[in-house]
Write a structure and sequence with these properties.
The protein is of the alpha+beta class. It is built from 19 helices and eleven strands. It has helices spanning 8-18, 21-27, 35-53, 57-63, 80-89, 108-142, 145-157, 285-321, 345-377, 381-416, 419-422, 428-438, 445-459, 463-478, 486-512, 515-546, 552-569, 572-582, 585-588, and strands at 66-67, 74-75, 160-165, 181-184, 190-200, 209-216, 229-234, 236-238, 244-247, 250-255, 266-279. Strands 3, 4, 5, 6, 7, 10 and 11 form a seven-stranded mixed sheet that branches. It has a two-stranded antiparallel ribbon with strand order 1-2. A hairpin with a 5-residue loop joins strand 8 (236-238) and strand 9 (244-247). The protein starts with 7 loop residues before the first helix and ends in an 11-residue tail after the last helix.
Length: 599
């Protein structure tokens, strides 16, 4: 049986010892974000995710969702609806939503800790409130007052849920190709017509109403992305006065049969003149939708983190118990018929890889979430602008690297089980299947890489990168006299310098050939991710040494894991740098017709 225990100790270490969240929250004016309250919320969150959500994970995978072709209704797996009701009753749905809309107003970065627990416990179930969070952000920032009253408050309360409807059968990442239309009605609403696919939580039985945020084109809209508008299209018609009417002309045509996340309803949604309300300005819908997408990209990165942690926990427990062979250097447990497999170097390689990527990734992603808090709550306009630049730079790294590392870690964890990992009994193959989608939705790894290198570095002249390099330089300067940190500071400084040099090399080559950006982008993204983790692992060692809450054993664990990362994982940057310097020619020299050489 696959189990989950919330890693509260390391979550607290990340938030409070490394990131200094308690002081940050006080500075940003979160009056209710006191440490004793936050600790209590974490404890209750652990109980809910461990006791309610985790036991439903296997059930959701086995049963999946059911679609009624006659009515379009979708039923979630057994227990999912009841778990949602408990979630809402516990106040979790509005944990980080503003108090003005019925939420509890806690920091976004603190909510990320709960989200990690939810995703680790039951990723498929977690997709339902995930989309509501994105809809909340879009309505909060771009909705009119009446829309916030009529649509936002019920979502925050958990009485309704939200979706984001972008993709169409012919149109994925290239939203400029979308065909869904919006025709104006006499009452100020719009008639929305078109088909959207891959819509997470597009239909379910959790709530009576679902608020779809839909991209569509007005009749006079210009071509391409400049002609996209965003509309609120509820499942049940809702007037400006908040009165709920008849069923809208929106219906789930089918649900996808997927490799994983079977308990999450992935829907084909058909809009046939459905009543919708414009949110934001005409033809400016992409800007509003990116509010949802950027939030969702960070959230999907957390999904990779959560799955990796659950897989690691189960692999570690198995490695401590499973007896196979003797250690090469001699029996470690001579009283037993064989040694537990954790004594074997290759099993340790897999486990330590997971541990290093998970704990480092936790710091990377939580730090990005603290920038959301700064952007929304600081009164310093310069600080807000800097945080926005840095968050924009980090978002594609968090989304792509944490999800790719999630795939790596779930496969390492499965491998620790040997053949037992491949069968359903231990639940490891489900985690590996579930993890695979995280690298795809909300923008594939390749799309994140292009966003990072093409937009955040080339177009925006690397403003966020410069900030991160300054963070590294400042840290290295502060620790220059710390003999105990020398083994980390010198290689970190060297990698930061090479990071900057690589960026300049790509920029120079791109001036002569734009394909150089696409050719380098994925390797550049991973290079960036590993150097970012090197910084956070060095910070973790310093924080552990200074922590009043860490034991000697915990300090040792942080330092040894950091050493493993620096010596066994950080060298991956060498191959990424070599691939970047190889340029675009090896990728483009072969004619497309010659990819298939069978004649």
């Amino acid at each position: 049986m696959n189990r989950y225990q919330a890693p509260l100790h390391d979550i607290r270490f990340a938030l409070f010892d490394v990131l200094g969240a308690e002081a940050l929250y006080a500075r940003l004016g979160f009056a209710n974000a006191q440490r004793d309250l936050l600790d209590a919320v974490l404890e209750e969150g652990a109980k809910f995710t461990q006791g309610v959500l985790a036991p439903l994970n296997e059930i959701g995978d086995r049963q999946g969702c059911r679609h009624d072709k006659d009515t379009g209704a979708v039923s979630a797996p057994a227990g999912f609806k009841q778990a949602y009701e408990q979630f809402v009753e516990g106040g979790w749905n509005g944990l980080v939503a503003p108090e003005a809309y019925g939420g509890q107003g806690l920091p976004e970065s603190f909510g990320v800790a709960l989200k990690e627990m939810i995703d680790a416990a039951n990723l498929a179930w977690g997709n339902y409130p995930l989309l509501s969070h994105g809809a909340t952000e879009a309505l909060k920032q771009h909705g009119e007052a009446w829309q916030q009253e009529v649509f936002l408050k019920p979502i925050v309360a958990g009485r309704w849920t939200g979706t984001m409807c972008l993709t169409e059968p012919h149109c994925g990442t290239d939203l400029g190709l979308l065909k869904t239309r919006a025709a104006p009605n006499a009452d100020g609403s719009y008639a929305i017509s078109g088909t959207k696919i891959f819509i997470t939580a597009g239909e379910h039985d959790f709530t009576d109403n679902i608020v779809h945020l839909v991209l569509a084109r007005l009749p006079d809209a210009p071509a391409g992305t400049k002609g996209i508008s965003l509309f609120i299209v509820p499942k049940m018609k809702v007037g400006r006065d908040g009165v709920v009417g008849e069923h809208n002309a929106v219906r789930c045509g089918s649900i996808e049969h997927k490799m994983g996340i079977h308990g999450s309803a992935t829907c084909v949604m058909n809009f046939d003149g459905a009543q919708g309300w414009l949110i934001g300005q005409p033809n400016k819908g992409l800007m509003a939708m990116f509010t949802m997408m950027n939030t969702a990209r960070l959230a999907v990165g957390i999904q990779g983190l959560g799955l990796a942690d659950r897989a690691y926990q189960n692999a570690l427990a198995y490695a401590r118990e499973r007896l196979q062979m003797r250690a090469l250097s001699g029996a470690k447990f001579p009283e037993k018929p064989a040694d537990p497999i954790i004594v074997h170097p290759d099993v340790r390689r897999m486990l330590l890889t997971c541990k290093a990527l998970i704990e480092g990734g936790r710091l990377l992603s939580y730090h990005a979430a603290t920038l959301v808090d700064v952007i929304e709550h600081t009164t310093d306009t310069e600080e807000k602008a800097r945080a926005d630049e840095l968050l924009g730079f980090l978002t594609p790294i968090v989304k792509a690297c944490l999800t790719e590392w999630g795939v790596e870690c779930t496969y390492h964890a499965l491998q620790c089980f040997g053949g037992h990992g491949y069968i359903a009994e231990h639940g490891m193959e489900q985690l590996a299947r579930d993890a695979r989608i995280t690298t795809l939705y909300e923008g594939t790894t390749g799309i994140q890489a292009l966003d990072l290198l093409g937009r955040k570095i080339m177009q925006l002249q690397g403003a966020g990168l410069r900030q991160f390099l300054t963070m590294i330089q400042t840290f290295c300067t502060e620790q220059a006299g710390n003999v105990g940190m020398a083994e980390f500071i010198e290689p970190l400084a060297q990698k930061a310098a090479e990071w900057q040099a690589l960026t300049m090399e790509i920029g120079k080559r791109a001036m002569g050939d734009a394909d150089e950006v696409g050719a380098a982008s994925v390797d550049y993204l991973f290079y960036s991710g590993y150097v970012a983790l090197a910084y956070w692992w060095a910070r973790a060692v310093v924080a552990a040494d200074a922590s009043a809450h860490a034991s000697a054993e915990q300090r040792t664990a942080k330092r040894e894991t950091a050493r493993f990362f620096y010596t066994r994982i950080l060298p991956r940057t060498l191959s990424h740098a070599a691939a970047i310097r190889a340029g675009a020619k090896p990728l483009l020299a072969l004619d497309a017709a010659l990819f298939d050489d069978r004649g």
